[in-house]
Amino acid sequence: MAATLYQRCWAAPGVKLNPTRNPKPKSLSLPLSANSTCTLFSFSPPFPKLSSSSVRTAVESDQLSSSSTEKKPSKYYFVVANAKFMLDEEEHFQEQLFERRRLFKERNNEQDFWLVIEPKFLDKFPDITRRLGRPAVALVSTNGPWITFMKLRLDRVLSESFEADSLEEALACSPTKIEFKKPDKWVAPYPKYESEWWGPFLPPGSKKEAKV
Questions:
Q1: Alpha-carbon dihedral of residues 95, 98, 101, 106, nearest 10 degrees?
Q2: Does the chain have fewer CB atoms within 10 Å around its N or its C terminus?
Q3: Widest CA span of the chain, in angstroms?
Q4: End-to-end CA distance of the chain
Q5: Helix 144-154, helix 93-106: angle, nearest 10
Q6: DSSP structural state of residue 89
Q7: How does DSSP assign 166-210, residue by residue?
């Protein structure tokens, strides 16, 4: 069909045939008569179609990539010592925590540090538990540099890090009753820590479990 149309166009009166063999014009207009023309068009082949298996493989690959990103555990850092030292003896620990809490509220930052009484994650660190008086209290945070600072500030603490899939898993604790005897005589120039001052820093929902 294309060859016939080609021959008719070039056979029109007043048109000289090109001796070149097998010409391949993309678009050509030729006069058939005084009031008519003949136009030839060439078209590019259609885009190749993707098979259903290729599309399914691409979709599954994207789903696996997104799911692996969602399941990536978070890293938590901590310092830990016995409860007596952390909650009753260390002179500046309370002030450090309340000052940081105040700063977070002023900047509308979400709290990223907690006190955990008898944390369950200690089971992963037998080298630490062997050196640790019980009950134990850990200061846990997602901020590694700040935990390093607190380790240097508190001095007599042990430090490590671990990964957990959720905040609830990271801050899981065993119910423990914490009580400290009041000294018969307090001679320091600053007031003694009040009992249960650590309540605002306990993980969400753990205040009742801790029985402080």
A1: -90
A2: N
A3: 126
A4: 95
A5: 150
A6: I
A7: SHHHHT-B-------PPPS---SSSPPPPTTTTGGGSPTT-HHHH
Task: Summarize pLDDT for 131-141 with one digit per residue, the tens.
Answer: 999 999 999 99
Tell me how far apart the alpha carbons of residues 144 and 113 are, in angstroms, rounded to a whole number: 11
Confidence grade of residue 90 (pLDDT, cut at 50, 70, 90): confident
pLDDT band at 2, cuts 50/70/90? very low
Location of structure tokens 């490590």: 160
Using 50, 70 and 90 to split pLDDT, how confident is the model at 152? very high
Please report the pLDDT score of residue 77 as a whole number. 98
Residues counted in the chain: 212
CB atoms under 10 Å from CB of 157, counted, come to 23
According to DSSP, the β-strands at 136-141 and 158-164 are unpaired
Inform me whether the pLDDT recorded for 12 exceeds 90: no
d(CA 53, CA 55): 5
Q: CA 139 from chain center: how many Å?
A: 22
Is the sign of the CA dihedral 52, 58, 62, 65 positive or negative?
Answer: positive
What are the structure tokens assigned to 160, written together? 């490590």
What HEC string does 41-81 produce?
Answer: ECCCCCCCCCCHHHHHHHHHHHHHHHHHHHCCCEEEEEEEE
User: Within 10 Å of residue 160's Cβ, how many Cβ atoms?
Assistant: 17
Q: How far apart are the C-alpha atoms of 13 and 112, rounded to whole Å?
A: 90
